[in-house]
Design brief:
The chain is an alpha+beta fold and 336 residues long. It is built from 11 helices and 12 strands.
Length: 336
C-alpha cells in the first residue's frame, strides 16, 4: 500500500484490536489499494458482513425495479406466500422496507426465544424461513408505515424474500447471479460453509454466522478485493452491464427522506450525510465475530471498506473511526 493511502487510514489500524485480522480497502483518484494485517490474511480472505448485506439487498431492489419485476410502491403482501399474509402487510410497501419506515419491529416475534440459547455464538441459526412465515402473523407494526424511522432486520429480511419471490430465485442465488457475476464479486456469497477468517467475541472464537430465515438482513461474506469492486461500481456505474444494474447503482443512492433530528438522508438502505461540496454514503454491520464498514463519496471519488474479525462491543470505536477515515479521505480529495 502506498504512503499516500496509508496516512488517512492509520487511525483505523489503531482502532482494531492488535491481535485481530484487519482488511482496509480504499479507492482514491482511481487508485485501488488493500491493506491487510494478521496472520494468513490477504485481500481475498472472506469476512462476515453482517448488516452491510442490506446494501446488497437495496441494490437488488433497485435492479428489480429497473427490470420491471417490481415497483417501490408495491405492497409487501403481494410477495408473501398465500399462507403467510397478515392484514398489516397490505399497508407496507417495498420502499418502506428499504428505508426502515415499515413500522415493523427490529426482530421477528418469537426469534428471541430461539436465539437466547446461542445468544453469544449463533443466535439466528435456528430461525429458518419456515419458522419466519409461521410466526409472521404474530408480528405487529409499532407505527403506521411511512411515519417513523425504526431500524428493522425483519423489514429488510422480508424485502429479500419479496425480491427472491419476484425473481423466482432464492436470495443467496439471486445475489450471486445479479450482483456477483456482473460486478466480478467472485468470493461474495451467503455460504457459511466456505473458507473464511475465524471471528472472535471477547477473545473467544465464534462459529460461522448463519441466518437462514433472514439472509437479506445479514448473511453475506465478502473480501477486500470484492468490496473494492463493489464500491467502484457505486462510484462509477458507466461501464456496468446489464443496463438495469447500471441504473440501479444510480437509483440506490437517491435520498428518499430526511432522518429525524439530523441533516442525514436515507436512501435505499444507505445512510447519506451531506458535507460541504460532497456527500458521504455509508453503512456498518456486525455479527458475533466480525465488524464491517463500507462507504463512499461520489463527488470526491473515494471509497473505503473496513473488515475486522472481532465483534464490536457497545464502546468499540471501530465503526466510528471507519466513518471518520472515509470523511477525511473525501475531504482531502476535495481539497486536491
Amino acid at each position: 500500500m502506498s504512503d499516500t493511502n496509508a496516512a488517512p487510514i492509520a487511525p483505523l489500524l489503531r482502532a482494531a484490536p492488535a491481535a485481530g485480522a484487519l482488511v482496509v480497502a480504499t479507492i482514491r483518484a482511481g487508485e485501488h489499494s488493500v491493506a491487510c494485517r494478521g496472520t494468513a490474511v490477504d485481500a481475498d480472505s472472506r469476512f462476515e458482513l453482517g448488516s452491510v448485506t442490506k446494501t446488497f439487498t437495496a441494490l437488488l431492489l433497485a435492479d428489480a425495479v429497473a427490470r420491471g419485476e417490481a415497483r417501490l410502491d408495491d405492497p409487501l403482501i403481494t410477495y408473501l406466500p398465500p399462507t403467510a399474509r397478515p392484514r398489516w402487510s397490505s399497508n407496507i410497501t417495498l420502499l418502506h422496507l428499504a428505508t426502515h419506515t415499515s413500522g415493523l419491529p427490529r426482530l421477528p416475534r418469537g426469534s428471541l426465544r430461539t436465539a437466547l440459547p446461542a445468544w453469544y455464538s449463533n443466535p439466528y441459526a435456528g430461525y429458518d424461513e419456515k419458522r419466519l412465515f409461521a410466526l409472521l402473523g404474530r408480528a405487529r407494526p409499532h407505527a403506521r408505515p411511512g411515519t417513523r424511522v425504526s431500524y428493522s432486520n425483519l423489514g429488510v429480511g422480508l424485502l429479500g424474500h419479496a425480491l427472491a419471490r419476484a425473481a423466482g430465485q432464492p436470495y443467496p442465488d439471486l445475489v450471486v447471479a445479479r450482483l456477483g457475476v456482473p460486478l466480478g464479486l467472485t468470493m461474495t456469497t451467503c455460504d457459511p460453509n466456505g473458507p473464511q477468517v475465524t471471528g472472535y467475541l471477547r477473545g473467544r472464537p465464534r462459529p460461522p454466522w448463519r441466518m437462514p430465515g433472514l439472509p437479506a438482513a445479514g448473511a453475506l461474506r465478502s473480501t477486500g478485493t470484492d468490496l473494492t469492486r463493489y464500491l467502484a461500481a457505486h462510484l462509477d456505474p458507466t461501464d456496468v452491464r446489464p443496463a438495469s444494474l447500471a441504473e440501479a447503482l444510480v437509483q440506490v443512492h437517491r435520498p428518499r427522506l430526511i432522518a429525524p433530528h439530523t441533516d442525514d438522508r436515507l436512501c435505499l438502505v444507505w445512510n447519506l450525510r451531506p458535507r460541504t461540496g460532497h456527500d458521504l454514503l455509508f453503512h456498518g454491520g456486525a455479527t458475533r465475530g466480525f465488524t464491517a464498514f463500507v462507504g463512499f463519496s461520489p463527488q470526491a471519488g473515494v471509497a473505503l471498506a473496513a473488515l475486522a474479525n472481532t465483534a464490536a462491543g457497545p464502546r468499540a470505536p471501530f465503526l466510528q473511526v471507519a466513518y471518520e477515515c472515509l470523511r477525511d479521505l473525501a475531504a482531502t480529495a476535495m481539497a486536491d
